[in-house]
Design brief:
Shape: elongated
Number of domains: 3
Order of helices and strands: HHHHEEHHHHHH
Number of helices: 10
Number of strands: 2
CATH topology of the largest domain: Muramoyl-pentapeptide Carboxypeptidase, domain 1
Largest sheet: 2 strands, antiparallel
Strand order of the largest sheet: 1-2
Strand content: under 5%
CATH architecture of the largest domain: Orthogonal Bundle
Helix content: 40-55%
Oligomer: single chain
CATH superfamily of the largest domain: PGBD-like superfamily/PGBD
Distance between the termini: 72 Å
CATH class of the largest domain: Mainly Alpha
Structural class: mainly alpha
Radius of gyration: 30 Å
Length: 244
């Protein structure tokens, strides 16, 4: 292919006749030959690098994952690589993420039938956002799977029904809280818990966050060693859910 391109530009014939040309003509032909060679090498390398990072994006995005894919792209045998449907997975389905301050966060993925206390925390977020109707538990059931798919669809994520890496990161980033002026069925559920714990009068559990609810929330937060914000934030939600 390279020689074909050289012939197209008339380079080969010109090189053969270099001894008949002037020194300037010889220099121009050699220079053009070198430029074309460098261009073709660069073009080929660009495709390899693009394929490497495209494939690496489907793996764990760790240095090991990228180096393994690069080894395959250039025809070398990687030391160890496990691929499942285009994704690299460890047996415990965990990946690590390093934050800007150097902290390493381990994310464990969960699928239908798995049980873990982390699943309970993710369900609490789904429940607070209104995607889950039943009480949160530590098991990933079919109902939870449906709630996850609905959440994933709303967020533009792949609808796997699993608590995968992208879904977990999205859930953790949710700023779930209720404050004065908010209203809704989920809020009313938390008001009812405050009523049961005698922090709020029964007639105030209307589903609207009013002054009485704010006062009750502050009292609950103080009694449970939480910051008295008067808002039903993530930590307050967790404490209230524990009383269900």
């Amino acid at each position: 292919m390279i020689m074909k391109m050289f012939r197209q530009f008339g380079i080969t014939g010109q090189v053969r006749k270099m001894n008949k040309n002037t020194p300037f003509k010889r220099f121009k032909d050699v220079f053009l030959y070198i430029v074309m060679t460098i261009f073709l090498i660069f073009l080929t390398s660009s495709f390899v690098i693009e394929d490497v990072y495209s494939a690496a994006d489907q793996l764990t995005m760790t240095e090991k994952g990228i180096s393994d894919v690069y080894s395959i792209a250039v025809g070398m045998e990687p030391e160890m690589l496990t691929i499942n449907n285009g994704e690299a997975e460890s047996e415990d389905k965990t990946t690590e993420i390093k934050t800007d301050d150097g902290t390493t966060i381990v994310i464990t993925e969960y699928t239908l039938g798995d049980k873990n206390e982390e699943i309970l925390e993710y369900q609490q977020i789904l429940y607070s956002l209104g995607f889950l109707i039943s009480q949160p538990s530590s098991e990933l059931t079919e109902e939870v799977q449906t709630a996850i798919k609905t959440y994933q669809a709303m967020k533009g994520l792949e609808q796997t029904g699993k608590l995968d890496r992208s879904t977990i990161i999205s859930l953790v980033a949710e700023d779930v809280k209720f404050e004065k002026g908010d209203s809704g069925k989920v809020l009313q559920t938390y008001q009812q818990i405050l009523v049961a714990q005698k922090y709020l009068a029964a007639e105030s559990a209307t589903g609207t966050f009013d002054d009485a609810t704010e006062t009750a929330v502050k009292a609950f937060q103080k009694a449970n060693g939480l910051t008295e914000t008067g808002k039903i934030d993530a930590k307050t939600i967790k404490a209230l859910d524990a009383l269900r």
